Amino acid sequence: MTDAVAAQPAAAAQPGAEPSATAASGPLDVLVVGSVNLDTGFVLDRLPRDGETIESRDVRRSGGGKGANQALAAAQLGARTALLAAVGSDADTALADLVDAGVDLATLVRIPDALTGTAVLLVTPGDNAIVIAPGANALLSADHVRALDEPAAAAPRVVALQHEVPDAVVEAAVDRWAGRSLVVLNPSPWRPVTAELLARVDVLVVNQGELGELLGAPGTVELADRAAVEAALATAELSSRAVVVTLGSDGVLLRAGGETVHLPAFEVDAVDTVGAGDAFLGVLAAGLASASAAPDRGAASLDLAALTAAARRATAAAALAVTVRGARNPSLAPSAVDALLSDV
User: What's the predicted TM-score (pTM) here?
Assistant: First the structure.
């Protein structure tokens, strides 16, 4: 069913919406291939126990989905950004922020008989738990990737991928853009990734638990602290050109060219950690795109210096994300990131 559905500009479903800034700006900086969700977030003092009903202190409904959140963050930092995703006819709320930020949605696939993906977020002080129902996200197919004919998406500087869409979509995206674009993969929610796929990924972004799974040590017990992660990275035979490991309040570890760099986290008053990972990934992609756009660099160029600069800005964006409730930070902007960077 989905293969017969043509991609339609989501902005057309928004009466009176301004045309996307990206659509008229030439080649893309960032193409995100991923998910769109409608989020319902419950603010709790603690998670319920088995069989227990508890009352929420607040409830919030907003757009979400890793792909959409990452695309929004990249666009908010000034990157020309598009999103290849599948949605149902109920997606306008989830897409409104993206339209406002200038994300190009001409690459979006609308599936009228499907529901847009849904997420329920349980937010407790300093932590969160999330349950998702894929909806239309599960109907995005490899054929949609192969059939994409938007001129701006021919050779994006960066292609960002994650696991809220089927494996076949991720594989088709790697097939299409590896070697022409910097391919960034965040295998979250975790599913096993083949060595063959990793060899074609430029930047692998994982947290401690995902790294443990990747290295055959499920959970985070074996990788409980930064020293353990750093030691694991030094000996791991990961075929991606670079690896980024997010460590929460302990910052980020970067590994490229046989070298490892640690970037500390920024000290902020966290109220909601839900949006941190997606803000990090989106801003990382934007930073890598900016670096590869330099006159002396190719579209698929990558080195530790460029990765470090992009990750530093991404770490600042993640810190800003945890100071607001919800999966998206409406005030994320280059000036806000610069201000936080200048304070240290």
Answer: 0.86
Among 208, 221, 201, 306, residue whose Cα is nearest residue 261: 306
Q: Give residue 208's pLDDT band: very low, low, confident or very high (50, 70, 90).
A: confident
| Residues labelled as active-site residues | 278
- Report whether 269 belongs to an annotated binding site: no
The verdict on whether residue 50 carries a ligand-binding annotation is no
* DSSP annotation string for 265-330: PP----S--TTHHHHHHHHHHHHHHHHHTSTTS-TT---HHHHHHHHHHHHHHHHHHTTSSSS--T
CA angle, residues 97, 279, 198, in degrees to nearest 5: 120
- Cα(291)–Cα(181) distance, rounded to whole angstroms? 12
Domains, the chain, ranges and CATH? 2-36+69-113+141-342 (3.40.1190.20)
* Model pLDDT for residues 118-160, shown as the tens digit of each residue: 989 898 887 778 888 999 999 999 999 999 988 878 889 999 9
67 annotated as belonging to a binding site for a ligand = yes
Amino acid type, 329: N
Tokens of 237: 């035979």
User: Amino acid identity of 114?
Assistant: A
Q: What is the 3-state secondary structure (H, E, C) of 5-20?
A: CCECCHHHHCCCCCCC
